[in-house]
Amino acid sequence: MTLTSAPNSSRFVSHRMQAVPPSGIRKFFDLLSTIEDVISLGVGEPDYVTPAPIRRAAIASIERGDTHYTSNYGLPELRERLSDHLFRLYGVRYDPRNEIVITSGSSEALDIALRAILDPGDELLCADPSYVAYLPATLMAGGSFVPVPTYASNDFRLLAGDVEAVITPRTKAILVGYPANPTGATMGREDLGAIAEVAAKHDLAVISDEIYDRLTYDGVHTCFASLPGMQERTILMGGFSKAYAMTGWRLGWIAAPGPLAEAVMKVHQYVMMSAPTAAQYAGIAAIDQGEAFIAEMVAEYDRRRRLIVDGFRAVGLPTFEPRGAFYAFPDITATGLDSVAFSERLLSEERVAVVPGSAFGAGGEGHVRACYASAYEDIERALERIGRFVQRRR
Ligand SMILES: Cc1ncc(COP(=O)(O)O)c(C=O)c1O
Q1: From ligand 1's centre to the CA of 1, what distance in Å?
Q2: Phi and psi dihedrals of 138, rounded to 5?
Q3: Quick one: CA dihedral 120, 121, 127, 128, positive or negative?
Q4: Phi and psi based region of residue 158 (left: phi greater than 0; alpha: psi -120 to 50; beta: remaining)
Q5: What is the domain range of residue 240?
Q6: Nearest ligand 1 atom, CA 252
């Protein structure tokens, strides 16, 4: 048998998918895999292995033979734990029977939430720069993505006035995601309260991606749904990947009022059926036993945060103080390079991987994202190399 290439098969690709840009990050990581001895501050995932009690709970579930689908909504015990957990942390109450849906990562949560609320042409407002999947997921759901600029001078917070300025009769929802990827920005109760007022005034839905809620270093995290009047219009989502070092398990969740949760669940049941069963058992153990691990990991991330922010500043790259997640977002304009050229040259000349800020939207240009969920010593070595690289451009 001979393999033939089929150059014309691209004609079958939908217009919708043709309009979705390939991930700027993916291209970069393909390049990275061809180079040896790279220190990667690129991928946004914890360097920790999932804590042992969580791993053991999943293994035990498999050994017991719990290898079937679960309820479409997810294991009842996990939904109950999550419901109590959200109440304990944020004072919000969701009925575990029909207001919580367990998903395959918050990636799936994002997709099904958007599909559940967007009609063709509906506009979704979102901070620029923002997480790479927000725009493609909006387009794939048939919506229209409207970036709202944010600035380092405002700590990359989403300002109510800027949101209001782009609202049209087609605006359906605001997507907020704090602590933020790629900036590490957080929004306090007052900041979010101003966004809540805009949402109420224009009767908009809100999707709140709070996957980094536990990774907050200064101040406390505010859950958007806990703001007065917001729960009924909010699809709250989160996951286990970041807080419990569980990226590979593919476990996330949505909490939303009944009718919204039901719409979300309809998409979920047809595209996913149920989240992985062993991962759901791991999720129960994470909620029951994960607090000490979170405290330990957050303390260590905080130490690395100080190292990397001080390090960037010391080599002459102004860096906004990230108060959440595990990213630093230095301003690289002093080097005279744009973010793609900076990242590519830093990789080839000094073997350090960071992500070009432009991968997160036009507003990310002039910055690069460096993930500090890497070993302290690796960050130290990376900073030395970056210092050399920047020095050569002075
Ligand atoms: C802001 C944000 N949301 C969602 C995700 C997806 O996480 P997961 O699908 O692993 O739960 C990520 C991963 O990097 C993220 O940064």
Answers
A1: 42
A2: -65, -45
A3: positive
A4: beta
A5: 64-289
A6: 11
Q: What is the CATH number of the domain that holds 181?
A: 3.40.640.10
Confidence at residue 4, expressed as pLDDT on a 0 to 100 scale: 58
pLDDT score of 3: 57
Q: Is 208 in the pocket of ligand 1 (CB under 6 A)?
A: no
Judge if the beta carbon of residue 43 lies within 6 A of ligand 1. Answer: no
- How confident is the model over 313-355, as pLDDT tens digits? 999 999 999 999 999 999 999 999 999 999 999 999 999 999 9
Tokens (6 digits) for 200: 């109420």
End-to-end CA distance of the chain: 58
Same-domain status, 266 and 343: no
Q: Which residue has 């922010």 as its token pair?
A: 309
Look at residue 2 in the predicted model and tell me its pLDDT.
Answer: 52
Q: Is the CB of 150 under 6 A from ligand 1?
A: no
Among 258, 289, 320, residue at a domain's last position: 289
Burial string for 243-269 (b: 16+ CB within 10 Å, else e) reads bbbbbebbbbbbbbbeebbebbbebbe
Task: Tell me the per-residue pLDDT of 62-98, one tens digit each, with 9 for 90 and over.
Answer: 999 999 999 999 999 999 999 999 999 999 999 999 9
Q: Please state the atom number of ligand 1 nearest to the C-alpha of residue 131.
A: 1
> Any idea how long the chain is?
394
